[in-house]
Predict the 3D structure of the following.
Amino acid sequence: MNSRPFWLKRIEEAWREAPIAWLCGVRRSGKTTLAGSLGPERTLFLNCDLPTVEDMVRDPQVFFRGCSKPVVVFDEIHQLRDPARVLKIGADVFPKLRILATGSSTLAATGRKRVVHLTPVLWDELPVFGVTLPQRLFHGGLPPALLAPAKQPAFYREWMDSFFARDIQRLFGFRDMDRFNALFGDLLRQSGGQFEVTKTAAALGITRPTVESHLRALEITHAVTVLRPFHGGGQNEIIKQPKVYAFDTGFVSFARGWDPLRPDDFGPLWEHLVLEHLQAHFQDTPIRYWRDKAGHEVDFVLAHRRDDVTAVECKWDPGAFDSSALKLFRTFYPKG
């Protein structure tokens, strides 16, 4: 088992603020393994995929009263019939108990919680996993794919089928897997680019409302990140058109047919990895991008406060760095 101390610390910090820590993230990102690393001596671990767990928590008050350990883990809690009721009773009636719930989204969450979004393996975790940065960019950050000796296309295809059947279909009731995967595949291929709903709907032959509802489901389940433009200075800035990033570099390279990676492929994938790092370390800070109508662009903007914004530009090759967009951005927003 690979230790992930950064994420264990995040869970402990969440418990200091609320009795429920909700560990969300995409399928196979390591939520179950991370929850299991809390230690059997202090943790009661429940796999909510098992029908017997539903019977155990039928009366939540009786169940929690009988817990002999200080931590209860509900793995894949959205599989329960009424997860919100179970969590509410646990938090309200047994406030000294610490609860960790895992799932792909927080749709079934109750109010007294803190969310920990588990990203794919970060670049500063790579020494623990014993892999190189180029391998992380190529294979992606889901541990089974990252640790595989070679990139296996079957893993990525199986993941997408399972993601639709076990997460999307159950949570949102979508029935047309082909239509959903057509949009998801298009987003993987265009990942990191600006997104136009009408243009995408026309290209895929599906309706605009369908594109919007499917995109929202992908965002809720953390399969994509929708970055809204940062604006406020009125300097001919882009104010509406978002950019969409897929959740993992391995799936981006798979969808684009990048095998093996060429030198020019590392830059776009590195940008994705930087975004994941920012999401992990600044989970409560909105992440935006900035672009003006003349085409000047800053990859990421962290909007801490109204007059305090951090600008981030990503380059795989330091020799290709051009500071002109950052300097222009700072003439509009000097602090940060």
Notes: The longest strand covers residues 297-305. The longest helix spans residues 153-172.
